[in-house]
Design brief:
162 residues; alpha/beta; Oxidized Rhodanese, domain 1; five-stranded parallel β-sheet; two-stranded antiparallel ribbon; 5 helices; 7 strands; 15% strand; globular
């Protein structure tokens, strides 16, 4: 992961508190919701901290290959391509990849599947689950295209063509 800003523990705590407040206001069943930039700051801080934060990209293999990948993210499909069937082994596979004590941030294309993944992970015993709002490509613009309004790529965060 490339280095950007160094965040203090107090700044990270403030980011997480804001994310938790969003979750409470929306009655979400998981710990919180982060913007892409906030998620990146938390993830970046975790490299030099005892806080064990993981970024889990739940997009399909096709999306990862054709649209782009986030360096060093854990990749675990929520839906299978091309059937769009829910990965019934998602929670088990997640438990094999990541400790349930970790702070886990989920991202997808727009924030919908990652919302479902954060909910399922919380139900599976992961206590610190966060959804990344806007996702990798963001919401659609007036013309129905993604990537122009918001999201991970629009925020200028690290990614590469897969």
């Amino acid at each position: 992961m490339e280095k950007r800003l160094e965040q203090t523990p107090d700044q990270i705590s403030a980011i997480l508190a804001a994310a938790q407040k969003r979750a409470q206001e929306l009655s979400l069943p998981y710990a919180g919701s982060l913007t892409p930039s906030e998620a990146y700051q938390v993830w970046q801080h975790a490299e030099n901290s005892p806080q064990n934060a993981k970024l889990v990209d739940v997009r399909t293999r096709a999306e990862l290959d054709w649209v782009g990948r986030i360096p060093e993210a854990t990749e675990l499909e929520w839906l299978s391509y091309p059937s769009n069937q829910t990965n019934t082994h998602f929670a088990t596979e997640l438990q094999q990849l990541i400790s349930s004590d970790s702070l886990v941030m989920f991202i997808c294309r727009s924030g919908q599947r990652s919302n479902n993944a954060a909910t399922a992970a919380t139900q599976a015993g992961f206590a610190q689950c966060y959804n990344i709002l806007e996702g990798f490509e963001g919401t659609k613009d007036e013309a129905g295209h993604r990537g122009n309004t918001n999201g991970w790529r629009k925020a200028g965060l690290p990614w590469f063509q897969g």
